[in-house]
Amino acid sequence: MSRLFGTDGIRGRVGEGLDAPLAHAVGRALGTFLSETLTRPLVLIGHDTRLSCDMLTSALAAGLAASGADTALLGVLPTPAVSRLVTLRGAAAGVVVSASHNPAEYNGIKIFDKDGTKLSDEGEARLEALLADPAATVSAPPAALGRVTWDATAAPEYIAALAATVPHPLTPQALGVDCANGAAARIAPPLFERLGLAPRWLGIHPDGTNINKECGSTSLGRLGTLVRREGLSVGLAFDGDADRCLLVDETGATVDGDAILAMLALDRRRRGLPGSGAVVGTVMSNLGLRRLLEGEGVAFHAAPVGDRFVAELMQKTGASLGGEASGHVILREQAATGDGLQTALAVLSLMERTKQPLSALAAVLSRYPSATVNLPLAPTAAAAVAAGALAPLTEALTARLGSRGRLVLRPSGTEPLLRITVEADTRPLVDEVLELAAKEATRVLETL
């Protein structure tokens, strides 16, 4: 069988490979994997608001029970809530049924280890092997089948944990919040009420089909309009499973993950917080972020795209802050994975402490011009690219850019595409190198 796990778990269109039988098989494989070292392991399962979540969650729980693992169903919860609760509850693993920022017809299965981090490459490989050989999975006898229970305390516990990270009362201010008709719609209203805030809300009426539909962090237009029209101080936007947060400043301008990292990193460095001497981004982080941080004495480390890789590199480097331009931001003292609500609270706390508008805080980042093109990438060509087929082109164009910019050629982790990104100190240089890169990469791919 082809590899199921991508950059962020298993993901696909429901009914086209991702269905109840596959979810049941993943549950049995996960239960078998955990039972190799544990007796009657406990697995927590949460999900977002897609119609398909009930089907997939039920199938996962059935598969886990069949292998002798106990399951606690947490209901609609952000992905980072499940990560956090795995450690708080001492569970063996956590599973989130969500396709994050994708449309409602897609779904996915994300798996967390006992420490709340994404499952390792070795763990994914073991599950792939068990899925390829169903006869190797455990079938528990009737007296040893797992139990499936409902846990109604998960959401209140997560809300309390988030609120506890705000070090001082937040001054009520005019906020806009877009919950993407996703998991944040369950958590954000009671959380902000607890903190004494009364935002103007968007995307808080999920119906199973409207998650991420013209709302949330992938579609900031309505939020920007709301902020400008009503004179709000900031807009917060989450994606479907609330592990991302993007912002809109008081002028309606977008503040992405790179700008969030910049403002939080400089603040943490100036306050001398533990781990503030390093920040982890990705190979796609804007070059302006790297130059800014290094100029302030903060080491910048680039991980492959994916918050799992960011988290792993943070652990290795001792960095307490990391993230991606997409809005995945990891504050390691509070969470083991990207948490959009935690990010929002960190930014609101920074605004409270500094008494500066968001536009002024975000202005610390001078962004380099950047552009990306996507080329179709057949499976055979992808293997050749991974083996270095484009290395000579990359070296030649990197030499062309010199110290003025950088080039990134990488296969997408979620789609059959080759992504080519160029950043440089001037737009003409970006356009020149990107056109040449696309032309020459296309020529090479046609020969593979």
What is the helical fraction, as a range of percent? 25-40%
Which stretches are poorly predicted, pLDDT < 50 over at least 5 residues?
A: none
Q: For this structure, what is the CATH homologous superfamily of the largest domain?
A: Alpha-D-Glucose-1,6-Bisphosphate, subunit A, domain 3
Q: Which CATH architecture of the largest domain is right?
A: 3-Layer(aba) Sandwich
Content of β-strand: 15-25%
The structural domain count equals 4
Question: Judging from the principal axes of the Cα atoms, what is the shape?
Answer: globular
Computed over alpha carbons, the radius of gyration is: 22 Å
Mean pLDDT reading: 94
In DSSP terms (H or I, runs of 4 or more residues), the helix count works out at: 15
CATH topology of the largest domain: Alpha-D-Glucose-1,6-Bisphosphate, Chain A, domain 3
Number of β-strand runs = 19
CATH class of the largest domain: Alpha Beta
From the structure above, extract its key features:
4 domains; Alpha-D-Glucose-1,6-Bisphosphate, Chain A, domain 3; 20% strand; 448 residues; five-stranded mixed sheet; seven-stranded mixed sheet; 19 strands; alpha/beta
Q: What would you note in describing this structure?
A:
The protein has 4 domains: about 5-150, Alpha-D-Glucose-1,6-Bisphosphate, subunit A, domain 3 (Alpha-D-Glucose-1,6-Bisphosphate, Chain A, domain 3), CATH 3.40.120; about 155-255, Alpha-D-Glucose-1,6-Bisphosphate, Chain A, domain 3, CATH 3.40.120.10; about 255-340, 3-Layer(aba) Sandwich (Alpha-D-Glucose-1,6-Bisphosphate, Chain A, domain 3); about 370-445, Alpha-D-phosphohexomutase, C-terminal domain (TATA-Binding Protein). The two termini are about 25 Å apart. About 40% of the residues lie in helices and about 20% in strands. A hairpin with an 8-residue loop joins strand 5 (about 95) and strand 6 (about 105-110). It is globular, with a radius of gyration of 22 Å. The chain is of the alpha/beta class and about 450 residues long. Helix 14 (about 390-400) packs antiparallel against helix 15. The chain contains 15 helices and 19 strands. Strands 1-2-6-5-3-4-7 form a 7-stranded mixed beta sheet, with helices on both faces.
